[in-house]
Design brief:
Blueprint lengths: L1 H10 L4 H21 L5 E9 L5 E9 H13 L2 H10 L6 H10 L3 H16 L5 H18 L5 H5 L1
Antiparallel strand pairs: 1-2
Helix pairs in contact: 2-3, 2-4, 2-7, 6-7
């Protein structure tokens, strides 16, 4: 929610391409920090925990800094969807409605990538599985910088 609020306040001031490129780059940097930082570095973070009487309450917990970096990636990924969608349908002219409908049907990365990351975690280990996230963020960075260019100029003229 915090990421989306930040994204909403910044989103109308910068282009979709700039938003996706910056969030992908920051997210990729955070994942790489999580992968290469020492697990012995501990930070104290606010957490939701079960109280002695069985209810939930806020408290503080010591966690490896790697975990904090991974949580912060969520701030980046939570605001990417709008930028991805805008870049995907940009320049489609009269085909925008059909393409956006198809785009909605084909949204499956949110189901496939976590399953694939789980498979990698089972085979190669928990930390190694975050390379799946790093590769996804690297692709989003590529898409923002080069992969989203309009290649069919004649569609815009129709």
């Amino acid at each position: 929610l915090i990421g989306r609020l930040i994204g909403a306040s910044v989103g109308n001031k910068v282009s979709s391409k700039a938003m996706l490129a910056s969030t992908s780059l920051v997210g990729l940097g955070l994942i790489l920090l999580a992968l290469f930082s020492s697990t012995s570095t501990i930070v104290t973070l606010p957490v939701l925990q079960r109280s002695a009487i069985g209810g939930l309450s806020f408290g503080m917990a010591d966690v490896p800094i790697n975990a904090m970096y991974i949580v912060l990636v969520g701030l980046c990924t939570s605001i990417m969807w709008g930028s991805i969608f805008n870049l995907a349908v940009e320049g489609l002219g009269k085909y925008t409605a059909a393409a956006s409908g198809l785009f909605m049907v084909l949204v499956c990365g949110g189901g496939i990538l976590p399953a694939f990351q789980g498979f990698v975690a089972d085979k190669a280990g928990f930390i190694t599985s975050y390379w799946v996230v790093a590769l996804g963020l690297a692709y989003m960075l590529f898409y923002a910088l080069a992969g989203s260019k309009i290649v069919h100029k004649e569609i815009q003229k129709q």
